[in-house]
Amino acid sequence: MTEFELIERYFRRPARNAVLGVGDDAALIAPSPGFEIAATVDMLLEGRHFFAGAEAEALGHKTLAVNLSDLAAMGATPRWALLALALPSVDEGWLAAFARGFFALADAHGVDLVGGDTTRGPRNLCVTVLGEVPAGKALRRTGAKGGDSIWVSGTLGDAALAIAHRLGRIRLEGADLADCERALTRPAPRVALGLALRGIATAVIDVSDGLVGDLGHVLDASRIGATVDIDALPRSSAMAAQLAGAQRDIALLCLLAGGDDYELCFTAPRARDAAIAALGARLGLPLRRIGIATAQHAGLEVRDASGHSIEPLPRAFDHFA
Ligand code: ADP
Ligand code: MG
After folding, report:
1. pLDDT score of 243
2. How far is Cα 163 from Cα 228, in angstroms, rounded to an integer?
3. Reduced to 3 states, what is the DSSP secondary structure of residue 278?
4. Backbone torsion region of residue 194, taken as left when φ is above 0, otherwise alpha when ψ lies between -120 and 50, otherwise beta
5. How far is the CA of 3 from the centre of ligand 2 (A)?
6. Mind listing the pLDDT tens digit of every residue in the chain (321 residues)?
7. C-alpha 63, offset from chain centre
8. Most buried of the four, 6, 51, 65, 162, by CB within 10 Å?
9. Ligand 1 atom having least distance to the Cα of 26
């Protein structure tokens, strides 16, 4: 199969949102009047971001999901995607499954695949997503104020627990294992939440590298501090069981700094607390108030059940650290 046959068979779809999609030298897209374009790219490298032999359909889902999560954190509506693929060989079973996972999520969010690049090489999946947001209305990291409530969607640390299990550091079983594996391989980007937070949140970030690091980025960008209660951090039953077990330290590390959560962490004035709780109910997505922003640019303090600061805080995952 040639490169062109491969693109034709697996990645060329009629474009609904674009003037011109796959097949020419570049796609043509027309942004809606009065909107700005939000653009983001994420690369997933075999052996670094996913295990060799990872299931192709789940990879198709995840490569798009991590980008949709970034757009959600900007309050942008995702519209167009580009897919750059390096593949060691043409494996049609792999390609069909990858495309199935990718397009299922793309269709669920009305995203058109409008272009890409395909080359032979060590497996590397790189997706660019473009979205739209009304001019001036994007949610940034910079707007949090002292006194704001700090919120997190969903639960934290489950994907990291799945990795810890695969590496033999902890032991998960039954429903706990299935829940954590799903969090790792099928993250659900919080697109509807991001859109609903426009006009409510003062700052938003998606938690991809762990809460400590990512909330830390908001604090630095907004030049504030924060106090968070460890007991307020939203956790799955798998996480609760691990925190109560012999590997509590590993579970705590996963909860605070595990990464791969793709939940949204955001700040909003306290006067919006009730509105945000109602929003969570409307979206069917648990939203948890985890702490409060402080006016001093003094970093993040995480308190344990007896009110003591946890120090040092575990560091976020950093590929170059
Ligand atoms: P060029 O050599 O002009 O850059 P290519 O031969 O790389 O073009 O690609 C031909 C067309 O197929 C282009 O429209 C490109 O965007 C698209 N394309 C290539 N690879 C992919 C892919 N993996 N997914 C979607 N579109 C792709
Ligand atoms: Mg060309």
Report:
1. 97
2. 25
3. helix
4. alpha
5. 14
6. 888 999 999 999 998 999 999 999 999 999 999 999 999 999 999 999 998 889 999 999 999 999 999 999 999 999 999 999 999 999 999 999 999 999 999 999 999 999 999 999 999 999 999 999 999 999 999 999 999 999 999 999 999 999 999 999 999 999 999 999 999 999 999 999 999 999 999 999 999 999 999 999 999 999 999 999 999 999 999 999 999 999 999 999 999 999 999 999 999 999 999 999 999 999 999 999 999 999 998 999 999 999 999 998 987 665 554
7. 10
8. 162
9. 14
Nearest ligand 1 atom to the CA of 25 is 3
Question: Cα separation of 3 and 134, whole Å?
Answer: 38
Q: Are 64 and 102 in contact (CB under 8 A)?
A: yes
Tokens 């799945």: give the residue: 162
CA 233 to ligand 1 center in whole angstroms: 44
Kindly state the greatest CA–CA separation across the chain: 64
**Nearest CA residue ID for atom 13, ligand 1:** 23
Q: Within its chain, how far is the Cα of 266 from the centroid?
A: 13
How far, in Å, CA of 142 to CA of 150, rounded? Answer: 14
Instruction: Compute CA distances 34 → 37, 134, 153, 236, whole Å.
Output: 10, 6, 30, 41
What pLDDT, on a 0 to 100 scale, did the predictor assign at position 317?
60
Token couple for 53:
């032999």
Residues ≥6 apart with Cβ < 8 Å to 234: 152, 154, 155, 156, 286, 288, 290
Cα separation, 69 vs 89, in Å, equals: 29
Asked if 242 contacts 161 with a C-beta cutoff of 8 angstroms, the reply is: yes
Nearest CA to ligand 1 atom 3: 25
Residues touching ligand 1 (Cβ under 6 Å) are 7, 11, 22-25, 83, 85, 113, 115-118
3-state class of 309 per DSSP? strand
Distance, in Å, from the CA atom of 25 to the CA atom of 28, rounded to the nearest integer, reads: 10
Q: Which atom of ligand 1 is nearest to the CA of 21?
A: 14
